[in-house]
Specification:
The chain has eight helices and 17 strands. It has three domains: about 80 residues, OB fold (Dihydrolipoamide Acetyltransferase, E2P), CATH 2.40.50; about 90 residues, Dihydrolipoamide Transferase, CATH 4.10.320.10; about 200 residues, Chloramphenicol Acetyltransferase (2-Layer Sandwich), CATH 3.30.559. Helix content is about 25%, strand content about 20%. The longest helix is centred in the middle third of the chain and has 24 residues. About 10% of the residues have low confidence. The strands form four sheets. Strands 9, 12, 13, 14, 15, 16 and 17 form a seven-stranded mixed sheet that branches. The chain has a four-stranded antiparallel sheet with strand order 1-8-6-3, with no helix packed on it. Strands 5-4-2-7 form a four-stranded antiparallel sheet, with no helix packed on it. The protein is α+β, with helices and mostly antiparallel strands.
Length: about 450
């Protein structure tokens, strides 16, 4: 008999074939899914109206078919999927029931009702893939995405109907691969492996006199983190300068009072205050991206990391709840944390949980630079050394004290327009700080 496309209630017109799940020679049962149609908003399975052996298939992937169009021919078709009658006399055994050999194997286990799930239930990582093996059923959009990112769908056990690989299965596979790569990179870093072992070591002594010193454990960790942050985040950097002429004069006026309290009123303290004000207006700069759940985490706290230079290497202690602290408390925390870094007494907990980082090179020198984002944060601010430069004020060229600033941000979450608006509000936050804000 000939199996034709029934009325699926999806509206008039023709629909493209998303996948053909049987081929000539296969045996199917009644109501077994034989192909899938890609409708406007979903992929719809098409069941067989009878059971039997497939002798001819009329459609292929991409063809458009409508109600009543032939799909395939069946031999020995019978109700309830019997493949044929018994042959011979009354003592002969009945023919065995036809098996749905052509249907793709369903997922190894159902995710529903399980407290814990092994990735091995869904993905084949170690098994050799037969290049001649058929691809599992999947919609054209899933197949196209898999081809673009280089994923072999035969490694994924689909959770859709009839073992169909759906987009969420593909995303889960990619996330698992990403997490595995990061974990293995971290393990390799802890073992002191920073480059492929196949790369040869260069004998630099053949070019001249050299000396050697071992790479410290801290420097190894810094190197591994910097490589990961730079390679996994799409960095964009915004450059600008802030006129701090009046603000610096105010700082010098109030500095003696802070000195009496055992602290220093520095531009870093004022920068902390300005940053918090700008972050409150632009919470995406105080956020993180959860790459596993693909969710943006907007933080209600303001824990600001401060990059501190030391003989051992760069460390980033965190000033917690910077929005709730007075300028004197911020100055005290800065002094305390800097001393701990210099004395190598800073704890791991004191360098965790930052929501935004400031790297201030102003005390050392230099101008604009491009800081690397401190993952999993979404942005970092770089501050250079202030210098007197000619500026136009009220139509006159006058000397002004300008402080170079840069904002590096994660372009996955932050667009250029958003970064420009943040930078403008950050500059305004400096000018809005008054004597009343800083006075003890």
């Amino acid at each position: 008999m000939q199996v034709k496309l029934p009325n699926l209630g999806e509206g008039a017109g023709s629909s493209p074939v998303a996948s053909v799940l049987v081929s000539v020679g296969d045996t199917v049962e009644k109501d077994q899914t034989i192909l899938e149609l890609e409708m406007e908003k979903s992929v719809v399975p098409v069941p067989s109206s009878a059971g039997g052996k497939v002798t001819k298939v009329y459609v292929s992937v991409g063809d458009k078919i409508g109600v009543g169009d032939p799909i395939l021919d069946l031999e020995g078709a019978g109700d309830a999927g019997d493949s044929g009658e018994a042959s011979g006399g009354g003592d002969s055994e009945p023919a065995p029931k036809a098996k749905p050999a052509a249907a793709p194997a369903p997922a190894r286990s159902s995710r529903a009702g399980r407290e814990s799930v092994s990735f091995d239930d869904y993905f084949d990582f170690e098994e050799e893939i037969d290049p001649n093996a058929p691809m599992p059923p999947a919609s054209p959009s899933v197949r196209r995405t898999a081809r673009e990112i280089g994923v072999d769908l035969r490694r994924i056990h689909g959770t859709g109907g009839g073992g169909r690989v759906i987009m969420s299965d593909l995303r889960a596979f990619v996330r698992w691969c990403q997490m595995t790569a990061f974990r293995q990179a971290g393990e390799a870093a802890r073992e002191g492996v920073f480059q492929p072992r196949s790369k040869p070591s260069i004998d630099f002594s053949q070019f001249g006199e050299i000396s050697k010193k071992p790479m410290s454990s801290l420097r190894k960790v810094i190197a591994e983190r910097m490589v990961e942050n730079k390679n996994t985040l799409p960095h964009v950097t915004q450059f600008d300068s802030v006129d701090i002429t009046d603000l610096n004069a105010l700082r010098k006026k109030l500095a003696p009072a802070y000195k009496e309290k055992g602290s220093n009123l520095t531009m870093t303290v004022i920068t902390l205050m300005a940053v918090v004000r700008a972050l409150k207006k632009h919470p995406i700069f105080n956020a993180s991206l959860d790459e596993v759940t693909e969710e943006i985490i907007l933080k209600e706290y303001y824990h600001i990391g401060m990059a501190v230079d030391s003989d051992a290497g760069l460390m980033v202690p965190v000033i917690r709840n910077a929005d709730r602290k007075s300028p004197l408390e911020l100055a005290t925390d800065l002094k305390t944390l800097a001393a701990k870094v210099r004395d190598r007494q800073i704890s791991g907990d004191e360098m965790k949980g930052g929501s935004f980082t400031i790297s201030n090179q102003g005390a050392i020198g230099g101008g604009h630079f491009t800081p690397i984002i401190n993952k999993p944060e979404t942005a970092i601010m770089g501050v250079g050394q202030s210098s007197l430069q000619p500026a136009v004020v009220d139509g006159q060229i006058v000397p002004r004290l300008l402080m170079p600033i840069t904002i590096s941000y994660d372009h996955r979450l932050i667009d250029g327009g958003t970064a420009a608006r943040f930078t403008v509000d950050l500059k305004n936050a400096f000018t809005e700080i008054t004597e009343a804000d800083l006075a003890l």
